[in-house]
Amino acid sequence: MRKEKEKIKIIPLGGLNEIGKNLTVIEYKNDIIVIDCGLKFPDEEMLGIDVVIPDTGYLQKNLDKVKGIFLTHGHEDHIGALPYVLKEVNVPVYGTKLTLGIVETKLKEHNMLDSVDLRCVKPKDIIKLENSSVEFIRTSHSIADAVAIAIHTPLGVILHTGDFKIDYEPIDGHVADLARFAELGKKGVLVMLADSTNVERPGYTMSESTVGNTFQKIFSEAKGRIIVATFASHIHRIQQVITAAMKYDRKVAISGRSMENIMEVAMELGYIKAAKDIFINIDSINKYPENKVTIITTGSQGEPMSALSRMAASEHKKVNIIPGDMVVISASPIPGNEKLISRVINQLFKKGADVIYEALADVHVSGHACQEELKLMHTLVKPKFFIPVHGEYRHLKQHGELAVKLGMNKNNIVIADNGDIIEVSRDSIRKNGVVMSGQIFVDGLGVGDVGNIVLRDRKHLSQDGILTVVVTIEKQTGNVIAGPDIISRGFVYVRESEDLMEEAREIVRGALKKCEEKHITEWASIKSNIKEVLRMFLYERTKRKPMILPIIMEI
Amino acid sequence: MRKEKEKIKIIPLGGLNEIGKNLTVIEYKNDIIVIDCGLKFPDEEMLGIDVVIPDTGYLQKNLDKVKGIFLTHGHEDHIGALPYVLKEVNVPVYGTKLTLGIVETKLKEHNMLDSVDLRCVKPKDIIKLENSSVEFIRTSHSIADAVAIAIHTPLGVILHTGDFKIDYEPIDGHVADLARFAELGKKGVLVMLADSTNVERPGYTMSESTVGNTFQKIFSEAKGRIIVATFASHIHRIQQVITAAMKYDRKVAISGRSMENIMEVAMELGYIKAAKDIFINIDSINKYPENKVTIITTGSQGEPMSALSRMAASEHKKVNIIPGDMVVISASPIPGNEKLISRVINQLFKKGADVIYEALADVHVSGHACQEELKLMHTLVKPKFFIPVHGEYRHLKQHGELAVKLGMNKNNIVIADNGDIIEVSRDSIRKNGVVMSGQIFVDGLGVGDVGNIVLRDRKHLSQDGILTVVVTIEKQTGNVIAGPDIISRGFVYVRESEDLMEEAREIVRGALKKCEEKHITEWASIKSNIKEVLRMFLYERTKRKPMILPIIMEI
């Protein structure tokens, strides 16, 4: 009995069956290792929500075991929940230089920088913990300084690829450490968790450097200003714009708060190679001839408040789009953003700018491995067990099938869900129970104070608006002494619907009278009577179902 | 002075700078010809809106001139506004057999069939009007029986392509009447209006028959049931499913109301070629072995109430997804629907079905011409003037550029907006003024009773909910005698926010007291005082801005 088999627990708390809020827990004896701590942007039905973070109750309960949060790279879906989670789980945060640089600006915004223990690591570093150790391995991704994480335990190695692609011509010259993956594979990897984002795409993801070729062509031909929108954190993309600007003798100005923030970090840490005098302030762009100006900006997803959207809508204080401007949208639409981007493109065209986007030229490549790159990783690492991560169910399932095609036994693959406890021994893997998991909504200052009931109400309000019905009743007699007043918002044009509203009042009066006749005096009953007759009346007349909010005042 | 130059007016009332609600007015002397009468599905910000239709005030004002509505094909974005527009502009409706068949089912639903004059035409038919005549010319599209429309006037020919592609192997054997386009071109076409949807795509759109090849492969390999989701109106796609089913000895059941409706029309009118005994009722699918069953269903866009979505969510009464089912989603996501479709795919995979969609196999082709097909049309028709239609601004602009590349003079191309009056003479084209145009929202039974104020309120309500503040005041003294009561919906979990709400009441009491002290008795002032203090308080405490609705009852 005493010699219970040793186990490693792998518990994904986010990133499975969804895109975003990546957080994986690896637990061996007294060591709990957290890989990434990301947020997710709200779905359409999460009305009014700012961001969504993972439920980390499990970590809070086992706080004494948590040795640290280990970051693979600096994207929001991998670091964005840190300011919220660190408030409950204040443990050391390990990451590479750029990753921590971005984390720092984030913590600064939340006034938390002083209270967090940030520990900078380099690829090949190994952090020793009580019963295990954590190794960082260089990969390529659409942000510099990305790493995979290998956890060494007496039972074997757990390898988490993080988000990755294989880029043989990366902008910074640092190719993924394929040799280390091969070496680990040769020695034997117990479990691999690997990025499934692009598993549906055959072939290879093109090298980041191919985008540079397109930029060079654009810069060689453009006669006016060049405005490039891309992800603020995509240092290599930005580097390529700067390189092209230097070659074609253009100055570079930066627009957009997140772009300015990350550029500051990237410059300070030496991630951008540029002649110092190439940068100009956005205020002074008009002092230069148009063919000497490049602007790098946020807004590649058409985000309504972003710099590019404001330029397109003539709401940007510093940049006014003019005929001859060449706007390059160097990004793919994230699903759900297509219409926003399309609107910006239309506005820019209308202002006379030329617009180049993915449909028209090779101005973007993905940061995730396609099928052949995934096959390379599987072939190098040859894990005994495999858990596809970072994807919706369809991606996880197809990544599992890809592994089977490469010869893996189907029973050695676990398609899991957030909260699953996956138990691994030297020779077995299985799901064994669940821990609390889920999504916590952040809305303004509130973390978790908006839940499904509030969202259901917002949805209802958004569809047909609200009718408030107020009646003042005399306590002693039960007589109505003021009202019913009906005020609506988001239902109909009030001016054109006066008759309808007067009829509605009449309906409520009737309901109140009936209650009186039947000696119904309970507020709850009176209210539900009012609701019911109004609901029926309004639906019959308008086929709409506004929220109805009866309020009884008693004096 | 009397001999003013003769003019044709071309007035697009919908379909420019947008996708949908296509409606073009061609006016020559006493003839107003309306081409198409489509609806648009609401954008995300049009909360609670069912459909959007064009403003046809111009037609209502010139009712005596309107000779008819001439339909190019039976898609919603070309016929969907008929039930609303015909109520105001009851003129003859001309269309091909299938188009009118679909219009009939639509009018039936609106109880309008008896009051509308439907006139069936065939390709090559010419309808003579007072001063002009209207000719129908066969094209190919993703629905059978599509036509282009040529309007013959003494000043020249106006050609409207409608939605089209060039398909040399169409399912019904009827290739677009290229000879007639060439003939018109040879004689001289004054103005062409042409579909711009796919102008950003190089090359050719594949033939519809290529999808049939994929179906044959799928049917030859599938061991369980095959469930194909596609657009209800895509008769040729449906025919290809049926053809494959016949070849592989499977029965066919239909699911989804719109699919059933259109299949009934298509069968009755002879647009589907099938052995009669191939169809089985959806109720009896379980009487057949799984490898003998095909189900054709709606829901290819992931629409939440569609048959496929209900199957995926285990809410379909007749069809229960089981492992071994092969689901084919034979459609492209319409921008905005990606997440809905993705959700359905994930649910189907989770239930053990195999799912095939566009990312994985050639199960869909577009119905619109790509660049090379557009070039063919321009080359055949050789119009003097050109107005790109059916597209957002980016599409219209690029379609204009394509025409310039083919040799057209830039000044002969008009990029217009809905409502523009485009005046054409034998040798000139120009914009000259505008007519009222715009979008009218249909919400339930209301047509036009929801406008921007209502939508703005719905948006506001959807983001942070509403707080209703009720106070009862004694008229004579101005004293508060009941309340303030605060009721919120969609703002915060009330139970967990009792303190916040109590503080809010205190804030309102304070504001009321101040009003009393300052002898402010005007309701409007009291209300705006309450609003202001509450807004500031709530924003400071929650960083949210719920709608605040103060109500004062007087007794």
UniProtKB/TrEMBL annotation, chains A, B:
Annotated coiled-coil segments of the chain: none
Binding site for Zn(2+) 2: 78, 390
Enzyme Commission (EC) number: 3.1.-.-
Chain sites annotated for binding substrate: 232-234, 364-368
Subcellular location(s) per record: Cytoplasm
Pfam family name, one: RNase_J_C
Record keywords, A-Z: Calcium, Cytoplasm, Endonuclease, Exonuclease, Hydrolase, Metal-binding, Nuclease, RNA-binding, rRNA processing, Zinc
Residue sites binding Zn(2+) 1 per the record: 73, 75, 77, 141, 163
Binding site for Ca(2+): 48, 50, 443
Entry keyword Mitochondrion: no
GO molecular function: 5'-3' RNA exonuclease activity; RNA binding; RNA endonuclease activity; zinc ion binding
Cofactor, free-text remark: Binds 1 Ca(2+) cation per subunit. Seen in 1 crystal structure, it is not clear if it is physiologically important.
Class of enzymatic activity (EC top level): hydrolase
UniProt key word Nuclease: yes
Cofactor entry: Ca(2+); Zn(2+)
Domain of life per record: Bacteria
Annotated GO CC locations: cytoplasm
Chain's role: An RNase that has 5'-3' exonuclease and possibly endonuclease activity. Involved in maturation of rRNA and in some organisms also mRNA maturation and/or decay.
Family: Belongs to the metallo-beta-lactamase superfamily. RNA-metabolizing metallo-beta-lactamase-like family. Bacterial RNase J subfamily.
Name of this chain's protein: Ribonuclease J
Natural source organism: Clostridium fermenticellae
